[in-house]
Amino acid sequence: METQRGACLNNLPSPSDIFPGILTREAFEKLAARYKRAHGLNLAAIDSAGEVLAGRIHCADTKTARAADPSALSHPVSFRQALEETLRWGDPCIMCCPCGNALWAVPVMRNQQMLGGLLVAGVPLEPDGPAGELDRSLLSASHDLLNLAARENLTNTALLEQNRLAARRESGRAEALHDLKERLYDEIRSAYLHEEPALLAAIQRGERAEARGIINRILTAIYARGAGRRSLLKTLSLELVVMMARAAVQAGAEPEKVLGLNYRSLTELADVHSQEDLSRWLCDMLEQLIDAMGAPAAHPNAVQLARAVAYIEQHYANDLTRDEVARAAGLSPGHFSHLMREHAGATFTGLLLRIRLDNARRRLARDNAAVAEIAQSCGFSDQSYFTRVFKKAFSETPAAYRQRARGAVIG
Predict the structure, then answer these.
(1) Which terms are listed as keywords in the entry (predicted)?
(2) Less packed terminus of the chain by CB within 10 Å, N or C?
(3) Which of 262-266's residues contact partners 24+ apart within 8 Å by CB, and which partners?
(4) Which pLDDT score, from 0 to 100, does residue 175 have?
């Protein structure tokens, strides 16, 4: 499957270590040659921003690439998104670049930190080929890239597997991950995924104007990608309503009232036939959901703070930031810090550290995993730092605590 249709990106200079301590240029060139022999496709290495570090990418110049908007040619954005989607779902997601060609990527990771990735791009989609042939070849090539990275210890296979299982439990994507058409569905759906945190926070704060603006941006994005696929657009819009309803319940709306709204929305959606009607329907649902929440004063700060703590408990192993947690709780970063000091008597960093240490201590007492593995799974990328803060908090090292907790005699 050759992709020589006119280069739009070429070799860029890079140091001998493309990813220091993980992948040298010489090792990358061997990987690229092996992948080229197996699939006839060029392999590139990119950094976490989507910029090419090594290798070569070719891309066809289609009518999409000749669009009047120059921002449509922003390939690094597509490359970075391919990395993020693979990390999110645990499997390579076949996407389309601004030129209309297929691409996929696998993240290169040090522990839970994504340094960049291995990328295949500029693969033409051939609609006139034998039925099913394109689907199988693309899927085989994308999964072989993941397997190649795993064999060379270039990616965090445990984290990808964890995300893969979570994705299947939460959204039933087992079949979608093996079907190109559904992968294109994912590509359309991703148009609003990055808006989701801001929309949820606006709903939970009761900020109608901001939420309406976000919904309009989402609709513009998904219509640009899915024009003519009415059933798909309605499915995505209904998913948005479910997401908004969940945010409203978390912010204090009565579940029975929200359930009634959702039931009526299904009937009303059947009569929606245009983008204008769909926008009006979504905004009407937004207004009703915010009304169901009642006045913001009815929801004390303790509810939002509890939501923030619950979010930290669920995601403490990740590289969390104060702003991310505040956004998930529907708070401004400054107000979140104020509530933390006033009600929890701690800073965000202090609370996160305590939660990580408490989880590490529980695992040390019951798991046989190595201390380094437990440290990493609890959000500590540096074992020496983990040992230092653990000893400061509990007056003994992780190894000593494990022996004592299991009733062993410490020599």
Answers:
(1) DNA-binding, Transcription, Transcription regulation
(2) C
(3) 265/238, 265/241, 266/238
(4) 44
Confidence of residue 97 (pLDDT cuts 50, 70, 90): confident
Q: What confidence tens digit (pLDDT) does each residue in 134-156 have?
A: 457 888 898 899 999 999 999 99
Band of residue 310 on the pLDDT scale cut at 50, 70, 90: confident
Q: Could you tell me the two tokens for 165?
A: 């299982």
Residue written as token pair 């983990």: 386
Rounded to whole angstroms, the Cα distance separating 15 from 73 reads 27
**324 to each of 13, 216, 330, 332, 333, how far by Cα in Å?**
35, 23, 10, 10, 9
Give residue 146's pLDDT.
Answer: 92
Report d(CA 142, CA 139) in Å as an integer.
5
| Amino acid (1-letter code) at residue 399 | A
The two tokens of residue 314 are 């669920």
* Mean per-residue pLDDT over the chain, rounded: 75
Please write down the HEC assignment for all residues of the chain. Answer: CCCCCCEEECCCCCCCEEECCCEEHHHHHHHHHHHHHHHCCCCEEEECCCCEEEECEECCCCCCCCCCCHHHHCHHHHHHHHHHHHHHHCCCCCEECCCCCEEEEEEEEECCEEEEEEEEEEECCCCCCCCCHHHHHHHHHHHHHHHHHHHCCCCCHHHHHHHHHHHHHHHCCCCHHHCHHHHHHHHHHHHHHCCHHHHHHHHHHCCHHHHHHHHHHHHHHHHHHHCCCHHHHHHHHHHHHHHHHHHHHHCCCCHHHHHHHHHHHHHHHCCCCCHHHHHHHHHHHHHHHHHHHCCHHHCCHHHHHHHHHHHHHHHCCCCCCHHHHHHHHCCCHHHHHHHHHHHHCCCHHHHHHHHHHHHHHHHHHHCCCCHHHHHHHCCCCCHHHHHHHHHHHHCCCHHHHHHHHCCCCCC
Looking at residue 120, its pLDDT comes to: 92
- Please report, to the nearest 10 degrees, the dihedral formed by the alpha carbons of residues 330, 336, 342, 343 taken in order: 40
Q: pLDDT band for 100, please (50, 70, 90 cuts).
A: confident
What would the two tokens of residue 9 be?
Answer: 């990106």
User: What pLDDT, on a 0 to 100 scale, did the predictor assign at position 47?
Assistant: 92
